[in-house]
Structure formats: C-alpha cells, structure tokens
Specification:
By secondary structure, this protein is α/β, with parallel strands linked by helices. It has 10 helices and 8 strands. Strands 1-2-4-3-5-6 form a 6-stranded mixed sheet. A hairpin with a 7-residue loop joins β1 and β2. The longest helix is centred in the first third of the chain and has 18 residues, at 24-41. The protein is globular.
Amino acid sequence: MTYQDLSPEALELEFNPRATAKNLDERLAASASASAEARAGLDCVLDVRYGPGENETLDIFPAADPGSDRGSPVQLFIHGGYWRAMDKSDYSFIADVFQPAGATTVLINYDLCPTVTLDTIVEQSNRSIAWIWRNIADYGGDPGRLYVSGNSAGGHLTAMALAHDWEGEGLPADIIKGAVPITGVMDCEPVLDITVNAEVRLEPEAARRLSPLRNPPRRALPLLVAVGGAEPRLWIKMSEDYAALCREHGIECEYMAMPGHDHFDIGRAVGDPRSPLAQAMLRMMGL
C-alpha cells in the first residue's frame, strides 16, 4: 500500500498525527507544565537571537558539569508541529535529561507556516546550527561535539541539516557529529493532500525538493532514526525508508521503533532518562 492508494480520509489518518491522538490536550498540557518546571529549576539562558527572523531565537541550558576544559557536548533539539505550530518552550523538559548528564542543551524556534515557506524554515534551522557552532563556546559548550535531534517536523529539519552543504558556507563538513531524527516527516509529498497543507502551502516541486527521502546525508555519522511503534503504518514507513536510504548510501544507521508509543509519546520519551531513546541519545554523545 502507498499513500497514492488512499482516500482523503485515510490519508488524513495516516499522515496527520493529531487525527489519531487520544487525550492530546491533556498530554500537551503535561509537557508544557514539565517544561515550565525545567526552566524554573535549571540554569538557562532564554530567547537568544540567532538570526533576523521574528522567531529566530533559541534557549540554552548549559551543562551542569562540562567535564572538560574544552566544554561539554551539545544537544540541539528542534521542535515539531508540522512546521506550523508548537514552540521551543514546549520541549524544555528534555534538558532534565541532558543537562545533568553533562551536555549543554539548546532548543530552537523558527518562523511558522503560513507566515513563511518551508524553504525559509529549513534555512532558519540550518542558520541556528551555524550560530551554535560559532557561539556555543561562550556558554560552556564544545562546538566540536554538536549533536542534532528533533521530532516530527523537527525530525524533517534534522534530516535536511544532514543533507546541507556546510562546506559551501565555509563551515566544517562534519559540523554535526551525530543525529537523531525522531518520527520525522521524511516524505513531504503526502502533505500536499492533507488538511495541514492549507497552512504549510507546499507546492509539488517544493515537496519533492524538501523531502529527506530525496536528500540522504552527505557524510557518514552516528545516526539513529526513531519512530513510535503505535503510529500509523505509513507514517512508520517513512522512517523505515529513510533508514534504508541512509544504508544504501553507506551510512550505518540504527533504527528504533518504540512499542506502544504514538507520535506524541515518543516526543516525551526524549525527556525520560529511563527511556531507550534518551539512553541511546546519551550514549551517542559519550555520556
């Protein structure tokens, strides 16, 4: 079965996570509460500007103990929301895992559709990575140990960062030392036929050009592709296909499907130090 075979109603169920989520408002409220507690209880620097766009800001949670004179490893997390919703402040809770373990945690915002296009969002996300590489040492982070992760739309932006020509910007080709795209939108073409496109406003050419399934990573690096085992079958297949694409290009890629986790559960798992996902991310960073 492919998405072209589906009715509009079935497409919505396969490719719009909010269409199948249960008790979503309660779960989002719990995440917001946990994030507020993290910002109140952890050392952090909020709303640092990294670019000219209205929402081009980031939050930094410096490592509790850098563990080295050169600074701590850095975990950059990119939030989801189908490029049209959510905020970095909704995910501050992940710093509860990484900051105590000795990592500097950075969460970024970007402008949202329909105010900007997906091309602009990809540019902004990449601009944040360049800013972090140039400036994170001022906050105790080691630019030579920068790891990138993100969920849903953030998983898409993580994958697109791996396909970016960093050397073309005068930056190291290996600026990203490891990456974890989580339940990412790896194929943008189905978005053309679901209701979220009223705000995302993707056109067919852009959907093809901005799909990670057409843009493998430029170089080998530690890579973990994660997805919720309880998500719709075709949504899971996007992550399966992306992991296979990476392997076809000689990039060793770990694939993790977390049983019983839906699209929103797996986002919360990043902030649970007991979860296999959080533990794998810490191992990737050497923590």
